[in-house]
Write a structure and sequence with these properties.
elongated; two-stranded antiparallel ribbon; alpha+beta; four-stranded antiparallel beta sheet; binds iron/sulfur cluster; 21% strand; Alpha-Beta Plaits; 6 strands; 17% helix
């Protein structure tokens, strides 16, 4: 087979190699690639692990998180700290700082990346539960300074 020289030959060789290579892209959404292990997708909050310390609110650069703490007086006269977190997820830049700051591991990230919503309200994440509902926690409400 005769040897090819010059730019034309290099272009031909490139074309040939591209023809036998698999494409780097996939036909999304029919085909899907698994995100890398440390990919930060949808944020997940675990209220059972949260101590309401407020570090995530303090360190979030996008002002996404509000930690609402309430002291509730119990029947025996002692006070118990309770509360919840509110996330304005449309502001989140997925920097991961909240998960880094949380010493309890209460904030993690999933691999979910299809997060579009038709309205801003749907990005609001309020972690209030029956135990932390306003009517039960109306004593001495404050948020983290
Ligand atoms: S990932 Fe970053 S921007 Fe999003 S809530 Fe956490 S600290 Fe804030
Ligand atoms: S840093 Fe962690 S434990 Fe502290 S309030 Fe935030 S989620 Fe809860």
């Amino acid at each position: 087979m005769p040897r090819r020289f010059g730019i034309a030959a290099m272009a031909m060789e490139l074309m040939e190699s591209l023809l036998v290579q698999k494409p780097a892209t996939v036909i999304y959404p029919v085909e899907r690639l698994e995100p890398p292990e440390r990919f930060r997708g949808r944020l997940r909050f675990n209220p059972d692990e949260c101590s309401l310390c407020g570090l995530c609110q303090r360190d979030c650069p996008a002002d996404v998180i509000k930690v609402v703490r309430k002291r509730v007086e119990k029947e025996d006269g002692t006070k118990e700290l309770t509360g919840h977190l509110e996330f304005e997820m449309d502001r989140c830049v997925f920097c991961g700082q909240c998960a880094q700051s949380c010493r309890k591991g209460a904030i993690t990230f999933t691999h979910e990346f299809e997060l579009a919503q038709p309205s801003r309200e749907l990005f609001m994440m309020d972690t209030r539960t029956e135990d932390t509902a306003d009517e039960e926690c109306d004593v001495d409400e404050d948020t983290v300074p």
